[in-house]
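Listing S7. Sequence submitted for prediction.
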Amino acid sequence: MVLAGVALVTASCGRVPGTGATIETDYAKSLRVGLAYDIGGRGDQSFNDAAADGLDEVRRSLGLLQIKEFEAQPGEPLSSKQQRLQTLAENGYSPVIAVGYAYSDAVRTVAPRYPHTKFAIIDDRAASGPNVANLLFAEEQGSFLVGAAAAMKSKTGDVGFVGGVQSPLIKKFEAGYRQGVKYMNPKAKVRVAYLTRPPDLTGFDNPAKARQAAKAMYDGGADVVYQAAGASGAGVFQAAKDAGRWAIGVDSDQAKTADPAVRDLILTSMIKRVDVAVYDYIAALMDGTVASGPSVYDLKLGGVDYSSTGGHIKDIQPKLEQLKQEIIIGKIKVSPG
């Protein structure tokens, strides 16, 4: 098995959970895996759930029995994140996987104290060390594709973006989306709203505020709104339902995971295969090929993509596939910011 990413560029794709790869060893059954979720935890229908899907597939196909999960709370101090990781390490969990860049400082503090514990952090490259792996994604590439879809499906030439927290990570989603929209329609208007700014991370868990932000966009003339807002995205979907307009999901195929009442308003979703990254990392640890440092999951490696559930983009999918291949071969350059 090979860990997909920049460290091993010969890999053509990440391991896709559910493809039947198994590791039948006593080591697999004795491994203790700890997962620390960001705000929203399991059930956010987005980023955290994608990580949970990877863990569930590890549990099912690799035979892991010892798994511990914790969840961040809105407004908690940095010390809580540090304590969460430290508790896992002290109780023999290795690897300890931190879900989200909010754990960056905590990983930087805790990992050096436990040099024999493996740590991984998703969406952050600042936390580094010989026992730290950084699982990263080319969010701008997937966002370019859904931006192109928004432009092609918009009847008003007016689209929107709702970000949970105005952070460098979420700005990558906005940047790619804006580029995709403008590539297809240079005259299009792109409305942008962020729910909070760091250190306030509650923008990822405030559906009411997201609903209000999206409503303002729809009322102003937007007919497609893309959300990169974690659990807050449910509010954007509800606003789309209220307005009878399109919304675009993120991280998971949200036309399958969101409230059934709003699924028919989800034009497409920007798929971010956090599940593959989690699965890859644990499987690589088991077979001794895991590496510290950054691994980037991009379009070429299948780390990001767009969804077609619902058939709403069937008419434009050939164009999206063309754009996808042009990004992969470098004909189209997508800037992360």
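Caption to Listing S7: primary sequence and predicted structure tokens for the chain studied. The radius of gyration is 19 Å. The longest strand covers residues 158-165.
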